[in-house]
Amino acid sequence: MADNRLSQVSGHLSNNYSRGMLNGEVAIITGAGQGIGRSAALLFAKEGAKVVVSDIDEKRMNEVVSTITAAGGDAFGVSGDVGADDFPKKIVGATIQKYGKINHIVNNAGFTFDKMLHTMSDETWDIIDKIHVRAPFRLIREAAPYFRIKEQSQRENRSITNVSSTSGLHGNVGQANYAAAKSAVVGLTKTIAKEWGVFGVRANTVAFGYIQTRLTDDSAKGVAIEIGGKKVALGIPGGSKGNDAKDPFPHIPLRRGAVPDEAAASMLFLASPLASYVSGHTLEVTGGAGI
């Protein structure tokens, strides 16, 4: 059995590298209109995946789809709030109707809603939990029939990648809600790995440190999103660069933040055949911070 699986992996690698590591596979990526999600959508498409681009911002979502198709890739968009009750059925149904299968889910959509613990309202706690824990769980559950494939000969490379954060691993001031949610993601992922491993499904978490996105930009810029009719301010005071211009990231051994393309590359690795024996793992993408 092990030798047979190894030969299947080796064959997949040698046969498909010239056409991309994800050639012909279908990937759903949420929050793919900008930032890390956008980079992941473009990178997955470059590696041959058929990408289902999802975002709450339909205009940005369509721009990503257009970029992929203009370059000769295959993609379409499903807009909407990942936390909406009808979202899982909507995106899974559209994906199956279009492509007939699902190989990968990347649960990337999310945002921060920071408050100190003693001033945090129930609503501020609940919205973060809804988007970062409940939404990924419901999407994965809806897609279960396309992952829990009993017949081994009918299985392809399939994976689930859930996005966590160093806040979920170590906690963070002002982020009790976000830290708790991102910690829960790790437990969810490990459970999927244990329950669905028998079906050949891999499930991993990627925990990001400082990535240069709108979530880590200077909050003074006033960027906000609207969730459930409520505006949520994004960013952090000063943009996390500190006061030392010569050494703005003293806590990061690489002494810099990452760009979204670097973050997306870790997602590609976890979805690709290169990680064919990696499951239940939390990959820290931090430039060495927190070691």
Automatic annotation (TrEMBL):
Give the UniProt record's GO annotations in the biological process aspect: fatty acid biosynthetic process
Q: Which domain of life is it from?
A: Eukaryota
Q: Which family does it belong to?
A: Belongs to the short-chain dehydrogenases/reductases (SDR) family.
GO MF annotations in UniProt = oxidoreductase activity, acting on the CH-OH group of donors, NAD or NADP as acceptor; quinone binding
Q: Keyword NADP on this protein?
A: yes
Name recorded for this polypeptide: Short-chain dehydrogenase/reductase SDR
What's one Pfam family here? adh_short_C2
Q: Which organism is it from?
A: Pterulicium gracile
Q: Does the keyword NADP apply?
A: yes
Keywords, alphabetical: NADP, Oxidoreductase
